[in-house]
Amino acid sequence: MTGIRSGRHEHFDRLVIDTHLADGGYHVRYADEVTYVGSGEPVPLRGGAKLFVMAYSPSYDEDFDPTYEPADPAEVVDVTGYRTFRQVAWAGSWEGTTDLGLGVRARLPFRVFTLPDRIVVDVAHQW
User: Fold this and answer.
1) Which segment, 16-25, 79-88, 93-102, is predicted with the most confidence on average?
2) For residues 93 and 11, what is the distance between their CA atoms, to the nearest angstrom?
3) What pLDDT is stored for residue 23 in this prediction?
4) Which of 47, 56, 88, 96 is least enclosed, having the fewest CB within 10 Å?
5) Cα 27 from chain centroid?
6) How far apart are CA 93 and CA 100, in angstroms?
7) How many Å apart are CA 95 and CA 120, to the nearest integer?
8) What 3 state SS string does the chain have?
9) Is-contact 86 15, C-beta < 8 A?
10) What's the maximum distance between 2 C-alpha atoms anywhere in the chain?
11) Share of the chain above pLDDT 70, in %
12) What angle do CA 57, 61, 66 make, to 5 degrees?
């Protein structure tokens, strides 16, 4: 993983995870709690629902040097003013994966897909 960014669109909010893997895998689902890697403690997230986002891409290289470190793990990207996103929080990176918590307004429809060197998560503004 080399970066995380977000964007607002007419019908959805978008989270983009930049990876160094051409076809990075992922696992994304709504969860009652998102937990920190290792400790299992809950990641505090704002919003009415929580998306667990796992990218099959570590945030470190083969020498375990960081390829991405969020400046503020509780606010990985600024989503102030977004219609659906409430918070993007870091949950950790371990054993080749990186976990994030995405706090959203409600359990709204979402889609996930890959593009070269990135994973894209779109969450709709309405049902």
Assistant:
1) 79-88
2) 31
3) 61
4) 96
5) 10
6) 9
7) 21
8) CCEEEEEECCCEEEEEEECCCCCCCEEEEEECCCECCCCCCECCCCCCEEEEEEECCCCECCCCCECCCCCCCCCCCCCCCCCCEEEEEEEEEECCEEEEEEEECCCCCEEEEEECCEEEEEEECCC
9) no
10) 44
11) 97
12) 95
AA identity, residue 15 = L
85-94 and 97-104 strand pairing = antiparallel
**Model confidence at 101, in pLDDT bands (50, 70, 90)?**
very high
Distance of CA 114 to the CA centre of its chain: 13
pLDDT tens digits for 17-54? 999 775 668 999 999 999 999 899 999 999 999 999 99
pLDDT for 62 equals 87
Closest by CA to 93, choosing from 7, 15, 16, 17, is 17
Residue type, 86: R
- Token pair 């429809």: residue: 109
Report how far residue 116's alpha carbon sits from residue 119's, in angstroms, rounded to the nearest whole number: 8
